[in-house]
Amino acid sequence: MGATDTRNIVITGAAAGIGRAVAERFVQAGWFVGAYDVDEAGLQSFSQQWGQQRCRTGRLDVTDQQDWAQQLADFVQAAGGHLDVLVNNAGVSATDHFEKIPLARHHRLIDINLKGVVNGCHMALPYLTRTPGARVINLCSASALYGQPMLSTYSATKAAVRSFTEALDIEWQRHGIRVVDVLPLFVNTAMVANDVSKMKTVQTLGVRLTPADIAESIWRLANRAASRLPVHTPVGLQTKLFYLLCKLSPDAVNRFVTARMAGH
Length: 264
Ligand SMILES: NC(=O)c1ccc[n+]([C@@H]2O[C@H](COP(=O)([O-])OP(=O)(O)OC[C@H]3O[C@@H](n4cnc5c(N)ncnc54)[C@H](O)[C@@H]3O)[C@@H](O)[C@H]2O)c1
Fold this sequence. Notes:
Layout lengths: L7 E5 L4 H12 L3 E6 L2 H11 L4 E5 L5 H14 L6 E4 L14 H27 L5 E5 L12 H20 L6 E7 L5 H5 L5 H6 L5 H13 L8 E4 L1 H12 L2 H11 L3
Parallel strand pairs: 1-2, 1-4, 2-3, 4-5, 5-6, 6-7
Bound molecules: nicotinamide-adenine-dinucleotide (NAD).
């Protein structure tokens, strides 16, 4: 397959969970996919399944500017010089009372979840600007709507990604690039199974989304006309209701509901 005429997408955190589902959704549809992660073993099964003609994989730590520079240059060269979509998906969580989480872990969360997105946008801009209809899709979270207890720094990073997305989408109008995000509630991935499920809110609301649900939303955002893209896409009915509630209710109500769901 000639990658030059094929639409292409770069996805971070693509070895597992949502990122992996997004990579599979696009490669199955014939896109040329760049799947990057720090989990190289996880990426290997993806590249073995799809082969070098349909994808590139490699180590890319989103906190590392050099990794971004090398992998983007390599991908764009293989893809024929353009970059249609960047999905900033890599993310980590730390679920516990704020003071029980070591400060270094809080900092790492900010480095990956926020600075990783800033790095990606900064480093990909030269490639996105030369691609008509290019877009960036950031993984935000319903925790950006109202800060979640036990997930304070994680929520803060996602609220920051939300604001960053809004601002950059306006700024990059002059480059012809859209910047949007998806906001899911809990998704059935290792992040929730191994960590976030410690929150009482997970029991209260359940885990109703699959990685494939998020991949489908991202698929639609990648394919719809740029002028028709919403800046924020809450995924699934439950998240849409939560999104609406947070928008319409005064902060006192949002605080009350959030605290009750978390068992406070
Ligand atoms: N699972 C959920 O409930 C949920 C809900 C809303 C938003 N999100 C967001 O979706 C994204 C994906 O989450 P997931 O649930 O699939 O998590 P996951 O833990 O299943 O997968 C995350 C992937 O990111 C990779 N990663 C971690 N640090 C990295 C780094 N520095 N550089 C590159 N890759 C790195 C991991 O190796 C892993 O493959 C995250 O940004 C997360 O915050 C998840």
